[in-house]
Amino acid sequence: MQRLLASFLLCALLLPGLALADKPGDQRAIAGMETGRILWDITIAEPERLIARLSVIRETYEDMQRQGLEPQMVFAFRGGAAALIARSTEHLDIEDVSAVRHIHERLEGLQGSDGIHMEACHIATRRFDLEQDDLLPGIHLVGNTFLSIMGYENQGYTTIRID
Question: 85 and 124 in contact (C-beta within 8 Å)?
Fold first, then answer.
């Protein structure tokens, strides 16, 4: 019985790696690149949809690493997304609280990765009466994420909308 359980656990650990080994590469598109710079322009205000997008963002980060790119990602939260990055969930509808806590966990996990920076737009956060101390740790309040987008694009970042 112990051998069967050990074999099962070994297979369970190997399967995700095997799936990644079979995943196609992006060599033509990333030829000659050493660093992948993406600015995620996050405006989505629906918690469940943002959770799904954060999964794809994590996979993109891992795909970059798998293919030899150094990920550099900026998360720019603006619009309705600003309400989802507050430390407190008291301002939310009760049915959204669990999902928003899940978002917080995912963001915290991403922040632990090299090359990740997160910021929130003051124009958006003031709609929800949020200041720097109200935001999740590691998310920095900036005056205007439109300026951030402009600036990061001038630094070679590609903007991808998450709405």
Answer: no
User: Could you tell me the CATH number of the domain that includes residue 57?
Assistant: 3.40.1260.10
pLDDT in tens, 24-54: 999 999 999 999 999 999 999 999 999 999 9
Distance CA 107, CA 139 (A): 9
pLDDT in tens, 48-101: 999 999 999 999 999 999 999 999 999 999 999 999 999 998 877 778 889 999
User: Structure tokens of 109?
Assistant: 């996990």
For residue 139, give Cα distances in angstroms to 5, 6, 57, 67, 108. Answer: 43, 42, 17, 28, 10
Residue 7 lies in a domain: no
Domain count, the chain: 1
Identify the domain containing residue 43 by its residue range.
35-162
